[in-house]
Amino acid sequence: MTEDEGLRALVGPDDAAAARAEAALWEIWHRSGDREVDTLLHEGMAVMERRDLAGAEAIFARVIAQAPEFAEGWNKRATVRYVAENYEGSIDDCEETLKRKPHHFGALSGQGLCYMALGRPREAAAVFRRALGVHPRLRSVRHNLATALSEAVRGNGH
Predict the structure, then answer these.
(1) Under 8 Å CB-to-CB from 108, ≥6 apart: which residues?
(2) Structural domain tally of the chain?
(3) Which domain does 16 fall in, by range?
(4) What pTM was estimated for this model as a whole?
(5) Is residue 91 part of a domain?
(6) Distance (Å, whole) CA 94 – CA 14
(7) Which residues of 49-59 are buried (b: 16+ CB within 10 A; e: fewer)?
(8) Which among 48, 106, 34 has a CA at the least distance from the CA of 75?
(9) Residue 94 falls within a domain, yes or no?
(10) Is residue 93 included in any domain, yes or no?
(11) Based on the domain organization, do 136 and 119 belong to the same domain?
């Protein structure tokens, strides 16, 4: 499956095809084309799973330095920064991911979560809507969008 085929399947009528497409897209996004970079990415993911956030961030910084056009290096560092509550840094890394992969629903969703954490529900709602435009079956993003809209209506947003 190509990336374009996967993105089309996400919005298609077949739930099973969409689920397969999501898994295929993550596989595609995790391949840089350089074995050393891919090894570093997976090492960083393992370090992140052990909750060594500083160590994981350092590894993902190496991935970015070695392969700055590889979107997933930026996305994984965004994830580590989100977990470490460095929301502005995570937003910046999500932007870098999206410059390279504009339909990266993971980066869109993560960026929205960062905006929510910063008390910026209107900005969160905008990126949650973009994520749902790419992948309308993301229930957690749909829920987060409803929360962001509710907070924005209550006046808690900028």
Answers:
(1) 94, 98, 127, 128, 130, 131, 134, 141
(2) 3
(3) 1-30
(4) 0.94
(5) no
(6) 29
(7) eeeebebbbeb
(8) 106
(9) no
(10) no
(11) yes
